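As the next step, I wrote out a protein sequence along with its fold in token form, included below for the reader:
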Amino acid sequence: MERTTKYPVSLGTLIDEFSFIVENAPEGYRDVLVYADDINRCGLQLAGFYDFFDSERLQMIGKVETTFLSRFTPERRRSTFERLFETHIPALIITRDIQPFEECMEMARKYNVPILRTKEDTSSTMGSLLASLKLHLAPRVTLHGVLIEVYGEGILILGDSGVGKSETAIELVKRGHRLIADDAVEIKRASSKTLVGSAPDIIRHFIELRGIGIVDVRRLFGMAAVKMTERVDLIINLELWKEGKIYDRLGEDTEYTDILGLKIPSLTVPVKPGRNLAVIIEVAAMNDRNKRMGYNAAQELTERLNEAMGLK
């Protein structure tokens, strides 16, 4: 494991992603960093309640808030927005294509607060933006390995350098599966149950094969051979075959590897001449899907043996 950290997201990234209309654009507004993965619909703040207010969150107002503000005098609206903007919030988002009040724009220019507008309704904007923030700001770790999609399963292949991870990945790509990352896999905890992996931009779609060099998978095998991101469903640890070591031959009990606080099913596959690792990983992917759908071949075999021996 190389590093674990949490990153902010720039306001410019969110503006491009959601096509926000920029109403107030202070200098350097695209480089404003958002650290909070939540959004505040600032109704209570417009009424003057600032207990427990988190100024690091993006703020949002919609039809209800603007209707409430329309009942204020211009002086009161000015003081209300000044009280909000003096906390140095990252940005204010106005939904439903509502034009901002002049007092809002005046105070935004005074305190250099970006004002963004969208035609979408408030609930859908908040839901989509929350999901995006959770992903952008998710805890993450970079692992040395390969991430590949096999029959719809995200398989993270780990192992010592030179054990054959990249060679196995290229064989899987030739068999119709899709590469996500080779060498460095960036893994994010996208939710309380899901890890999502991707490749660093600089090495995306490239594989290093000893004796050949760098290979561009996308150009050699086409766009269908690569994918930008994939959920991590199963971890396969490749290790050189060790004589005398007892390897699991039934697979009745599931082992897990902890990544970012989530336990992911894992297997240890010994490597030696004559073993077709690509086929083994394909079978592992299908078998893992069977287990998640409630079928375990090892348990069924054990039940049959117990029944045959009169133990059940």
Notes: Residues 62 and 123 are 9 Å apart (CA to CA).
